[in-house]
Amino acid sequence: MQRLGLCALMVLAACGGSKSGDDVVDAPSAIDSGPPDATPTVTLDDVCGTDGAYEKLIAKLVACNPGIDLIAFQGQATAANVSALCHGAIDPYTSTIDLPSYAELQACLTYVQSTACLDLDFNSGPCGKMLHGKVADNSGCDSTEQCTDASWCDRPNGTTCGTCKPRKADGQACTADEQCTNGKCVGTQCGHPGLDGDPCVIMNNSSDDCLGQRSCNTTSHQCETKTWQLNDTCSGGGDCGILQTDLYCKIPQNQTTGQCAKFLAIGDQCGAGLGQCDLRAYDWCNQAAQTPRCTAAVVVQDGAACSILQGRKCDVGLVCSDPINGGKCYTPGVKDDACGGASDPPCGLFMGCVSNQCEYTDDTPACP
Domain range holding 36? Predict the structure, then answer.
């Protein structure tokens, strides 16, 4: 499922440089093994159900990278929502997509269960290669899942029908991971997810050229395994594993580098700079006070302003439209809700506004 994979990778990239871990999440088989002499039949629910393979993978990604839920998912990556997204990507195309074999499904489940957080990758792992498209090259497609295994869907305009094209070998020009045979567009050329020492390119503050939780060293431009420790040298707000550890990058005034330091406690004096107070709890530095101090978050309601940096956290069930730069709390619209009007709520996680209705964007085919 390329688009679900791209979503997960995009969020992981935003958390690049996080503290690596070896935790794994139990992922029991989604289907019974059946009689010893029979191979079980894989159903769509085994892939897309609330206990299906893709739900297990997203749950693992969230468990490995808690910052994902804080910044991007905001509690919406529930089993039901992930299942609905998966169905939205596959249901309209069952005539052009084959489900995985039992062995392929089990390989994905084993991968989720046994792969350490450091090495977890969506596109290059067995979970990214389960579905098999039937659409031949040069024929129309809505999604890469429809194309044969060695091809991708070139769809320059997301609202029109695209064309299946062969994937590209390492070294060829690319703009997206799905274009590449080895599942990774490194900078502007096809490559593979980087291990320690492999070259990488940081674009738009992303370091997802590297495999799993490895990050791209800004000086050497090589992938590295980085486990942040107190007093490590750092150079920016994303360093020190700010969303996974209890550390932030403390940079002295007029300096370009600093050291990893412990989050300040509520009531501690704070100053300008990202992350001195614990962002994970929406703690914030109240600069308006006579003596700026770390202050606990205020829980706000539907329509109220929200921001991590201002300590304004939406109540349970609400979502902040832009938790980093500041937005408003809203109740996310569900599938088929009205959208696009001034009084309509934005759509929920994974959905877009299609023809003035909240829809999973994959479930609106453009090809005849």
Answer: 1-134
Alpha-carbon distance 344 to 347, whole Å?
9
Which H or E run includes 260?
A: strand 258-262
Q: pLDDT by residue (tens digit) across 149-165? A: 999 999 887 778 999 99
Return the closest-CA partner of residue 61 out of 17, 5, 110. 5
The SS3 of residue 61 is helix
**Strand 97-98 versus strand 132-133 pairing type:** antiparallel
The reply to whether 60 and 122 lie within a common domain is yes
* Cα dihedral: 49, 54, 58, 60 (round 10): 100
Measuring CA to CA, how many Å separate 222 from each of 89, 117, 198, 226, 364?
34, 19, 5, 12, 40
241, 263: one domain: yes
pTM above 0.90, yes or no: no
pLDDT digits 0-9 by tens, 289-327: 789 999 999 999 999 999 988 999 999 889 998 888 899
If asked whether residues 217 and 243 sit together in one domain, one would say: no
Query: Does the residue 8 lie in any domain?
Result: yes
How wide is the angle at C-alpha 287 spanned by C-alphas 281 and 288, nearest 5°? Answer: 115
Is 320 domain-assigned?
no
Distances in whole angstroms, Cα of residue 85 to Cα of each of 55, 171, 336, 354:
10, 33, 14, 15
